[in-house]
Write a structure and sequence with these properties.
With 135 residues, the chain is mainly β. It has a single domain (6-134), classed as Irregular (Factor Xa Inhibitor), CATH 4.10.410.40. The protein is built from 1 helix and 7 strands.
């Protein structure tokens, strides 16, 4: 497997249409994704002292965090609007290999910071709502 360039890990936001057209959230310097799952323990006294888990059960989720420089792009403006309204929208994660993951996400955190005489920076967190599929 080839090493992939981190700058090619892109976060994109949908335009609200069906099917959505995605625009890259500009200015991102770091992007991180975590796939989370809760296990359902089905261990019994017949398990021979080993824990047993139920496949396909539990709750799965995808969390995305990113940080970057504010550029004022339309995608950033749309993302900020979702953070303020609590709206859930379509997002796409795009990787250098061409793989994509799409799903609906809620902006759970959006922070802005800036130093005097410096650029405005932001960090954001997204949490999935419903299935996230790999294309």
């Amino acid at each position: 497997m080839a090493i992939e360039n981190g700058s090619a890990f892109l976060l994109k936001i949908g335009d609200g249409e069906v099917p959505p057209t995605y625009a890259t959230v500009a200015g991102l310097r770091t992007t991180q994704m975590a796939v989370n799952g809760e296990a359902v323990n089905v261990t019994t006294k017949d398990s021979g002292g080993w824990r047993e888990l139920l496949a396909g059960a539990g709750v799965r989720s995808v969390s995305v965090s990113a940080a970057g420089i504010f550029t004022g792009s339309d995608a950033e403006t749309r993302l900020r609007g979702h953070a303020l309204s609590g709206a859930i929208d379509d997002y796409e994660l795009s990787f250098e290999s061409g793989e994509k993951m799409v799903g609906r996400f809620l902006v759970t955190r959006l922070d802005y910071a800036g130093d005097y005489n410096g650029e405005r920076q932001y960090t954001l967190n997204l949490e999935s709502s419903g299935p996230v599929v790999s294309l």
